[in-house]
Amino acid sequence: MNLDNIVIVLSRPEEPRNIGAACRAMANNGIHKLRIVGKKEEIDLDKVHVLAIHASYIFDNAEYFSSITEACSDCVCSCGTTRRRGKKRKGKLLLPEEFAKTANRISGTEKKGGKVAVVFGNERTGLDDNEILECEMGVTIPSSEEFGSLNLSHAVQIMCYTLFRYNEKNKIGYTPIDSKRLKKTVTTIADNLQKIGFFSVTGRKDMEIFWRDILSRSALSEGEAQYIEKIFDKAAGLSKKR
């Protein structure tokens, strides 16, 4: 997922401190594009900065529009957040995790992909029927029936975090060794155990299966496999000297 292609749209926000907290939530999760449906001159900038703290640059670089449609005009799709269901409020509301899959597919990589907008409504009313119709998709954040309404900045945090986590879990920091390569490590372990007399007559096969199952679940890197082999080689060598 290209988080630079994720756009957060706040429609008609009333509380400047919520805007500041939303900026901080975005920065926490590596998302930096903020668009606001409304007028900058109507926002108390000092109150925004109080809660934005070091994420104030996100607000300072925000863009302003007269409608959700205008704010999302360069996006491949826009997804409105809502807890209310209804005939005019999208037939199916995605869960945040489901939306993350769609956002991942559309946003692409660093050099490719299109923009995806996540749209949040006014603190008091949320997105009204007309605003939700301006969005191509709908997403809902499950919450208790006892008190289902989320604070605006909290909703932004949940959505941004879900996108961030989806992006992180799909990054591969290394390539785990395959079963053929793992067999070499298991054989090295068994050979060295046999050299020190760990096995009497039987038992080697069961021990190989034991190590194979444990190490395969660990998804070893090549470096880790080599390190384990060296440990058992050295242990067997020391045992022989004694």
TrEMBL record:
Swiss-Prot/TrEMBL keywords: Methyltransferase, S-adenosyl-L-methionine, Transferase
Gene3D superfamilies: 3.40.1280.10
Superkingdom assignment: Bacteria
Sequence intervals crossing the membrane: none
Domain (tRNA/rRNA methyltransferase SpoU type): residue spans on this chain: 6-161
A Pfam family it matches: SpoU_methylase
GO molecular function, one term: RNA binding
Transferase in keyword set: yes
GO CC term, one of those recorded: cytosol
S-adenosyl-L-methionine recorded as keyword: yes
GO annotation (BP), single: tRNA nucleoside ribose methylation
Family: Belongs to the class IV-like SAM-binding methyltransferase superfamily. RNA methyltransferase TrmH family.
Stated name of the protein: tRNA/rRNA methyltransferase (SpoU)
Organism: Treponema succinifaciens (strain ATCC 33096 / DSM 2489 / 6091)
